[in-house]
Specification:
By secondary structure, the chain is α/β, with parallel strands linked by helices. The chain has helices at 40-52, 68-80, 106-120, 139-151, 165-172, 195-201, 232-235, 246-262, 266-277, 292-298, 304-311, and strands at 16-20, 57-59, 86-91, 125-130, 155-161, 179-181, 205-206, 280-283. It has an eight-stranded parallel beta sheet. The longest helix has 17 residues, at 246-262. It is globular, with a radius of gyration of 19 Å.
Length: 315
């Protein structure tokens, strides 16, 4: 195989820990944060450590940091020449911040995909995801485009991100997604009742993002104390404001006690809980040392009974 994103052949199964690169040069796909987020030198340090620790799957998106995430991964690849890197990227949001340039229309997908290949410095990617549903484009047309890219061997497989059960069911009518990537954690369990069983039934890998709920499951937020400077709650608190609740703080206290009894960090235990419930997880460290709990979680085995009991801490 030529100089491509991976020499691996993962087929239709994606499992394990992926390095989330969503904050490289920004904060996710939010245009107001393009050029902010993790600086390039720290992004390199994070990728270096992840690779050294055996994490072979990097997850990005075309609009992360306005394209900076893909570009920095491409530059890192060019200098490090990693053998066996598995790449995921995504399409839907605007790389320029223009509200008129979003969605999953076939022509737009192909245009955005070509730009992703150029930034990443590859001629294929292993996994290509619809980053969000597009009500303006028939899902059948989007999936037909993904299937065409797969048949041309430009992608290894395709999947979905931020799709609910109804969206996943509709997708299955037109093709077979390899993976579903939604938000999931001890504090975000909306997929527990229906999406997770659906994925198991149809052999769709479920590899969520947000396993630490924007830092809430690291223990950095304390009852009655100000939010740490520079934390998610001081930058983009919207998705997590609902967590400022005594019930959540009570659950965090119980989780902290459980972690101390196991001699692991609260974050490691929370991450291990997701690994026990899903097929893997996307980690999103802002510094290289924040990979520590992720690496610790790899060696922490939770039984089904353990996972069920820990899950009840937040009920």
């Amino acid at each position: 195989m030529s100089d491509v994103g991976s020499t691996a052949s993962p087929g239709n199964t994606f499992e394990g820990i992926a390095l989330g690169c969503g904050n490289f040069g920004g904060v996710g796909s939010s245009p107001e944060f393009f050029g902010h987020g993790i600086a390039e030198d720290e992004a390199y340090a994070i990728m270096d450590r992840a690779w050294a620790e055996g994490i072979r799957w990097f997850d990005t998106g075309d609009a992360y940091g306005g394209g900076r995430s893909e570009s920095w991964i491409g530059a890192w690849r060019a200098t490090r020449k990693p053998d066996g890197l598995v790449l995921t990227t995504k399409v839907f949001h605007s790389t320029t911040g223009s509200p008129d340039d979003t969605g999953l229309a076939p022509d737009r997908i192909r245009r955005q995909f070509e730009s992703s290949l150029e930034r990443l410095g590859v001629d294929r990617v292993d996994l290509y995801l619809a980053h969000a549903p597009d009500p303006a484009t028939p899902l059948a047309d989007t999936i037909a485009t993904f299937e065409s890219l797969r048949e041309q061997r430009l992608i290894g497989a395709w999947g979905l991100s931020n799709f609910d059960l109804d969206g996943a069911r509709k997708a299955l009518e037109h093709g077979r997604p390899a993976l579903l990537q939604n938000s999931f954690s001890l504090l975000d369990r909306g997929d527990d009742a229906d999406v997770l069983p659906f994925c198991r039934e149809h052999s769709i890998a479920y590899v969520p993002f947000g396993p630490l709920s924007g830092g809430w499951l690291t223990g950095k937020y304390r009852r009655g104390e100000p939010f740490p400077t520079g934390s998610r709650m001081t930058q983009r608190p919207g998705p997590y404001e609902r967590l400022v609740d005594d019930r959540v703080f009570d659950g965090l206290d119980r989780l902290r006690e459980e972690a101390e009894a196991r001699d692991v960090s609260l974050a490691a235990l929370a991450f291990a809980w997701v690994l026990a419930r899903a097929d893997g997880a996307v980690c999103g460290p802002n510094r290289a040392d924040q990979l520590d709990p992720v690496l610790a979680a790899r060696g922490l085995q939770l039984s089904d009974d353990d996972a069920e009991r820990i899950g009840r801490f937040f009920e």
